[in-house]
Amino acid sequence: MKIIALVAALLLAGTSLALARPDVNVDADGVGAHGYDLVAYLSEDAPVEGRRAHQVTHDGILYRFASAANAAAFAAEPARHLPAYGGFCAYGVAMGRKFDTKPIAWKIVDGRLYLELDQGIRAVWLREVPRNIAIADRIWPEIEQVPAAQLGN
Fold first, then answer.
1. Domain for residue 2, yes or no?
2. Residue 34 — left, alpha, or beta (φ > 0 → left; ψ -120 to 50 → alpha)?
3. Which of 57, 69, 107, 138 has the most other CB atoms within 10 Å of its CB?
4. pLDDT tens-digit readout, 67-77
5. Keyword Signal: yes or no (predicted)?
C-alpha cells in the first residue's frame, strides 16, 4: 500500500511540474510587455503602445495591441510574437537573473523579440549578441519557472 501511495505522489508531483506555467514578466496590472503591441515590433519595426480596446489573453497573461488586426495576428500565432525569456531582460537572463524591461529597449534577431532592462543594458547586450543569446538560451530552461524574486532580483 505504501508503494502505491509513493507512486501516486510521484505521478502527481510530475504532473504539477509539467503543468507549471513559466514565469512571465508582467506589469503591476498583470499586463505583458508593459502593454506594448508585440506584433508592431515585427510589422512596424517599432515599439507601439497597445490599447485596452484590443486585448488578448494568452496563457493567463493579458497583452494589448494598437489595432484589432494586430490582436488577431497575435491570437493566430502567439509564439511568433512573444518576447524571448518570458519578456524578461535578455541580458539579465544570460546572467541567470530576471530583470524587468523597458519595451523601448528591444531588438529583433532572426525573427525573435528580445527586450532589455534599459537602453544602456541594450548597448552592452548588442556588443555580443550571438554569445549573449547562446548563454541565455542555455540558462533559460533552468530558471524559466523560478519566480524572479527567488533569483535575488
1. no
2. left
3. 107
4. 999 999 999 99
5. yes
Does residue 7 form part of some domain?
no
Concatenating the DSSP letter of every residue in the chain gives -HHHHHHHHHHHHHHHHHHPPPP--B-TTSBBGGGB-HHHHHHTSS--B-EEEEEEEETTEEEEESSHHHHHHHHH-HHHHSPGGGGS-HHHHHTT-----EEEEEEEETTEEEEESSHHHHHHHHTTHHHHHHHHHHHHHHHTTS-GGGGT-
Same structural domain, 88 and 124:
yes
What gap in Å lies between CA 136 and CA 44, rounded to an integer? 26
Q: Are residues 101 and 136 located together in one domain of the fold?
A: yes
Report pLDDT digits (tens) over 89-115.
999 999 999 999 999 999 999 999 999
Find residue 49's DSSP bridge partners. Answer: 36
